[in-house]
Amino acid sequence: MRFAAGEGLAASLTVLVRDVSAYAGRKGIRAGVLVLSGAMLEGIGLALIAPMLAVLFGGSNGNGRLQRVSAMLFDWTGLTTLPARLALLLGVFVVAMIVRAVVLMARDATLAELRIGFVEQQRCRVAEDLAAASWSKVVRLRHARVIQVMSGDIQQIGVAAFFLTQCLTSVVMLAAQCVLALWLSLPLALLSFVLLIASGLALFPTMRRANALGKVFTNASQILLHGTSQFLGGLKLAVSQNLQSGYLAEFRATIAEQSEQQIRYLRQQTASRLVIATVSAVVGALLVLAGLTVFHVAPAMLVALLLVVARMSGPSGQIQQGAQMLANALPAYDAVRSLRHDLEDGAMPIVAADDAQPVSGEIRFDQVTFAHPQDGGGEAHGVHDLTLTIAPGTCLGIKGASGAGKTTFADLLAGLYPPQSGTITVDGEPLGAMLGRWRNSIAYVAQDPFLFYDTIRRNLAWADPSADESRMWQALDLVEASGFIRALPAGLDTVVGERGTLISGGERQRIALARAVLRRAKLLILDEATNALDPATETAILDRLRTLDPRPTLVIIAHRPDSLNGCDRVLTMSDGQLA
Ligand SMILES: Nc1ncnc2c1ncn2[C@@H]1O[C@H](COP(=O)(O)OP(=O)(O)OP(=O)(O)O)[C@@H](O)[C@H]1O
């Protein structure tokens, strides 16, 4: 996915057209044929107007070829009376219009299918990129950016795709009407084109302005989302220290700026509509005058041409409006491409959970170094030259000062980071070569366990969807959580709130531990996963975890020395190394 920040309007448009065409494939060809057929049928309908008027009012229809075709048709059918000839032409006209309506129906359905499919493809691709992205990239992502891309920006891509197809359809319609106008009367048609093209060029700069406004909207929406999620995340702090007014002021300022831009944009759109309507009226008036006085065109032909030119203002207006809306929606596509581009580097293939057989065996770190990339290029921290072996089924304790590198070690062990130098092997096989299988084999309870905004039951089932209620209670018993859950009025069906905020920190940790136990993992990593529990409960839970059968390898990271009392071995980390 190539993306260059600050790409111009033309480059963004080219990429969108290329991506939509690549997605459309055969369906795109079908849509193209339907668009073309619709335009041709409309042309046939319009071309019939001049002969009908000539039949009605007498005289020539003003076009030699058209005159010959209608004369041939009347001879062939043997129709001589005015009503019969008019009925014939009306019949052909009605048939052409019915066929056109059916073709347009099929065209619109195909285009809608294409648009919806393209938007869903983009949504899925972002989701896949996120799931495959390297952990270093994911931890640096601004959540508001991702949410904005997945909701507002993707929605805007639907808008962009809609106006792109609308513009392309209108271009084909306009081209068909141009051909028809040229056929009816060359000089008059040329005159009308010159006037229409002049009006088109005059409106071109508005596209650039619409694009600039689109960029402002995309940024402002991200700022609003970010502000709101920050506010909600730190709500306790904000409310307890009366910081809401700052958040509200920022919110109001962003909204005010956005509304101002929006009003300016709508004014521009109304002005361009006014220009289109005025130009169409002027073109019509000039055509009648020039047709009668300069080119001496037959009245029937003049009326037919006027109708064709009037019909042209429909697609040309749609092109003008559509181009502006398209230019306005393009920055959203740029935002999606930019996110995908940022996630690309270091992405790992996703392995379906069912395809990956669990793995166990001796874990070996050999001279492993990993330094976190620092924004602004500051001093890198992480772990250095780490060498250790963890035998299967043992319980390893890790302690050390804050920032010593314990979580980085756990993340390396979980395969979230690839070592920058040195190797990590499991049973002699490099971890990087069996990540899917390895992640199927482990359960990791992090410092700040994540619970979904859902019931306790569904939070537990996430670890193992096949786990029945009795297995859930067994796991909850083991981590001393069944007591407080049974006391809740809704029991397992209690909703825990956003990130589990409706229950206590210790309760949250115990549900996260039960979820880990349900995975029946070969390796259980607990990174300060019991630090919110009272010492007695913590000791009881850790003792029980060590008696699990089959016994998993346990890696327990903790600050309190008592938490590591039952471990087979305790290592101390300092400055990213084993002390
Ligand atoms: N994503 C990151 N980007 C940049 N630096 C990071 C990142 N994660 C950790 N660090 C830095 O790496 C060092 C080790 O962090 P780590 O989280 O491994 O320490 P820790 O021993 O687990 O600390 P604590 O006991 O406070 O949880 C710290 O200096 C930390 O600031």
From TrEMBL:
Residues 363-579 form the ABC transporter domain. It is found in: Cell membrane. The chain crosses the membrane at residues 33-57, 86-106, 157-176, 182-204, 274-307. Keywords: ATP-binding, Membrane, Nucleotide-binding, Transmembrane, Transmembrane helix. Signal peptide: none annotated. CDD domains: ABCC_MRP_Like. It is a multi-pass membrane protein. InterPro entries: AAA+_ATPase, ABC1_TM_dom, ABC1_TM_sf, ABC_transporter-like_ATP-bd, ABC_transporter-like_CS, P-loop_NTPase, Type_1_exporter. GO terms for molecular function: ATP binding. Its main location: membrane. Residues 31-328 form the ABC transmembrane type-1 domain. PANTHER family: ATP-BINDING CASSETTE SUB-FAMILY B, ATP-BINDING CASSETTE SUB-FAMILY B MEMBER 6. This is ABC transporter ATP-binding protein.
